[in-house]
Amino acid sequence: MISLGENKIHEAFDGIHAEQELKDNTKEFLNDYYKKEKRAWNFNIYKVVVPVLTALVILVAGVTVRSQTVEAARIDLKNGPEISLSVNRWNKVIQAEGLNDEANQVLESLDLEGMNYTDAVEKILEDESYWQDTAESQIEVEVTCKNNQLGEEIQQEVTTQCEQHQEQHQYEKHQYGQGNEEHNSEDSSNCQNQENQTEEIQENCEENTGNAQENGETQGQQGNSQGLHDGSGNQNGNQGGNQGHGHNNTESHE
Amino acid sequence: MRAEAEMNRVIEEYADTVRRICYSYLKNYHDTEDIFQNVFLKYLKSDQEFESKEYEKAWIIRVTLNACKDFSKNFFRKNTCAFQEIDEPFYEPEDDLSYVREAVCKLPQKYRDVIYLHYFEGYSQVEIAKLLKKRENTIYTWFNRGKALLRETLGGDFFG
Lengths: 254, 160
Description:
- Chain A is an alpha+beta fold and 254 residues long.
- Chain A has helices at residues 4-14, 20-69, 101-108, 117-126, 128-131, 148-244, 246-253; strands at residues 73-78, 83-87, 93-98, 140-145.
- Chain A has 7 helices and 4 strands; from the N terminus they run ααβββαααβαα.
- Chain A has a 4-stranded antiparallel sheet.
- In chain A, a hairpin with a 4-residue loop joins β1 (73-78) and β2.
- Chain B is mainly alpha-helical and 160 residues long.
- Chain B has helices spanning 4-25, 29-45, 53-73, 75-79, 83-87, 98-106, 109-119, 125-132, 136-154.
- The interface between A and B is medium-sized, with 27 and 38 residues.
């Protein structure tokens, strides 16, 4: 049951209404707010997009720069001058380090930083000073890389390069060595030939003198003339041999 | 953000409620206008979905009460007097019940809220406790004390 007092309070407050002006002003204020928000939204696109893009560009630039200076793989050339090449993810050499004195000597004349690792290895292998201590032993290539696939690729490429250069150097060395040996063997065979020829001449002369004594004067004349003929033939042969083999042959004559 | 049409509907529907609450707290038109704008702007920005009109109304009442309390607590407002208070007299309905309104408005804020919500908006003490996020017993106490104060002001036979 509603008491009189309750009723009166209700009535007292029921007479209060929001003025039309108050409602209109509020609606106008909210309309302005709508428009402002729309403008702010358009403005916010630039306000948001520009910093985001800037941050993105800085991030990409940072990552790129960092990736260029961070070591992705390490190539160690062992046996002989031990050279260690640090390679970034773009396959560029970021550091070339000599692990012994010979390696430091080789690297002194080479500027490998910034080069592709295959070019850098090629340059090392083309350097003659590298082969002074390496030619006799097999170059050992050791690649350290977190990415196994990349590591294997580098290992394969560098090993192939090293093998090719090693073969080339061994071949050159072999050629040089064989040339000397051939030269020496030819000389010795010439000497033997000349010795044989002189022996033959001596034998012929002995035979001729024996025949002359046995067969009388006419036969002796024929035998002499034959003997002379043979002797001149042998002499011609010797002369031809001497011309072909230069000074070594003259020595054997003496 | 809510649509413009919906905002117009809400203003038309709850403007009187907001105005009544403001009446008990504020003494001039411009402050009331500020509260109006704050309350409906909050509604505009809010993404809250209401199950029914009752929930929507309760939300508006709670936001208005909080806005009014914040406004009253404002140090600058507490210690200064607006020109409008002098120049522009506050709206007063033309009836003979102004003494009742005055008595209610003179009650301490916590009793006043409970008395208004119970006698005018028709909420029970339990509903008021939920709406104001207070314990039921607290609301009962505030209600009885408010009623007692009103009885003192308006006479012993006011509540029959």
